[in-house]
Amino acid sequence: MTHRRIADALATGVAGALLVTLPAAPASAARTTLRGSVHDDFDSLRVGDRTVTHGRYRIVVRDASTMHNWHISGEGVDKRTTVGGTGRWVWKVRLRPGTYKIVCDPHHQQMKLRLTVT
Fold it and tell me: In the UniProt record, does the keyword Signal occur (predicted)?
């Protein structure tokens, strides 16, 4: 499976990044895994919007930061990691057509991504 990274680093001096790994092919009837992560530091970042097909997904998030979190919200979905803790989260969700926001809640103006579902 080919993966594409999406990230948006803070431009304000607080180093941080959000990352989403998306499948290369559209989702089928079977559940597809999306991978996300948030870190205190990240050297090589790509910024951009990504598109996936609507359907059932398993979202696996690795939160390696005690000052950021990873939060996805949109139609029928509102999942987040904690700001103070670290760890791995796994959520089963149904993504419907529309736009989903992925942000770090304390730094939502700088650390944000869009996931478009068709």
Answer: yes
Return the CATH number at 105. 2.60.40
**pTM (2 decimals)?**
0.75
Range of the domain at 79: 4-117
Query: Which of 70, 84, 81 minimizes the C-alpha distance to 18?
Result: 70
Assign residue 55 a region (left: φ > 0; alpha: ψ between -120 and 50; beta: otherwise): left
Distance between CA 52 and CA 2 in Å, rounded? 14
With a CB cutoff of 8 Å and minimum separation 6, the contacts of 23 are 1, 3, 32, 33, 34, 52
Number of domains in the chain: 1
Rounded distance between C-alpha atoms, residue 7 and residue 10, angstroms: 10
Strand 98-103 and strand 112-117: pairing?
Answer: antiparallel
